[in-house]
Amino acid sequence: MAPAAAFAAQVVRGRWFMAYGSFLIMSAAGATYIFAIYSKDIKSTLGYTQEQLNTVGFFKDVGANVGIHAGLVAELAPPWLVLALGAAMNLGGYLMLYLSVTGRVHRTPPLWLVCLYIAVGANSQAPLILLVGWLPAAVSVAFLATIRIIRAPPRSPVTARREYRAFCAFLYVSLALAAYLLVAIALQKRFRFTRAEYAASAAVVFLMLLLPLGIVLREEAVLFKANITNTPESQARAAPTPALPVATKQPPAAPVPPPATTAGQRLLLSLRPPPRGEDYTILQALVSVDMLLLFMATVFGVGGTLMAIDNMRRRRDALR
């Protein structure tokens, strides 16, 4: 295989491109935070009161933040299947919401059904609802083969520092993109943009979304050169004559605990929390005190923030 083709294959199958794909999926899934933009259209089109609209917003937040079912699926299925199910749920939920708001269904759906739509989609002006429905699903489907479990190789201190600098570069690009969007939104509210100016602004955003790909190529180029250096032919030319092994006394092996024999013992072992710093399984997280504390902190901390974000438009209209 030619070096260029080998490098391209390594980039597509590598860990850094998977991280880039994960960033794009998360950026497309941020539509849960723009509920204030389209909530007024849902309220006026479907004839809801403010209390009913708050109920819809509550179920939107429930669908976006309660992920036990997704974790259970991830325990049993590969990541691509989890992404495919999420894309289908997002598209189905928001597509039905779009059809309801635009009047393409025969009658106005009841409140509980709209809450179900937005909870399933959980991520609308009617065109915005449709965009929220298909864009996250399309991005997830595009990276189905990329997002997968990759065992990290052993890392040296030099490698760890280089990876830290790479993630800092990702962070700096995201901060630059956020600053640009803030300035662009402020200018669009103050001045009337032409169609060409909107196109130029969108092009800048698109280019900044592609900018992390340069970081991916840089990191994969370093790994590609290291792999070429560590080929068997290179090592055979550079390796000195091996010295004779010295016999050493092996320490005795640690005693292995007897395996659980009964179903109750196996269940208790599966629910036993891992050491601090290790990954939890879904069953371990459900019965863990640490996860309960994190859940309560999230409910009381993030819940107030989501309420403020969902009602941003109401506060703006009240201050006019």
Give a written overview of the molecule.
Residues 15-126 form the Nodulin-like domain. It is a single chain. By secondary structure, the chain is mainly α. The protein contains 16 helices and no strands. The chain has helices at 3-13, 15-28, 35-46, 50-65, 68-76, 79-101, 111-121, 126-142, 157-190, 195-210, 212-229, 232-238, 263-271, 282-286, 289-310, 312-319. It is globular, with a radius of gyration of 26 Å.
Topology:
Layout: H1 3-13, H2 15-28, H3 35-46, H4 50-65, H5 68-76, H6 79-101, H7 111-121, H8 126-142, H9 157-190, H10 195-210, H11 212-229, H12 232-238, H13 263-271, H14 282-286, H15 289-310, H16 312-319
Summarize the structure.
This protein has 320 residues and is mainly α. The chain has helices spanning 3-13, 15-28, 35-46, 50-65, 68-76, 79-101, 111-121, 126-142, 157-190, 195-210, 212-229, 232-238, 263-271, 282-286, 289-310, 312-319.
Tag the structure with descriptive keywords.
single chain; 320 residues; mainly alpha; 16 helices; globular
How would you characterize the largest beta sheet?
Answer: none
**What is the gyration radius calculated from CA atoms?**
26 Å
What is the count of DSSP helices, taking H or I runs of 4+ residues? 16
Query: Structural class, from helix and strand content?
Result: mainly alpha
Task: Enumerate the spans where pLDDT stays under 50 for 5 or more consecutive residues.
Answer: none
Number of beta-strand segments: 0
Rough shape? globular
Percent range of helical residues: over 70%
Instruction: Estimate the strand proportion.
Output: under 5%
Distance between the termini: 65 Å
SSE string? HHHHHHHHHHHHHHHH
Mean pLDDT across every amino acid position = 79
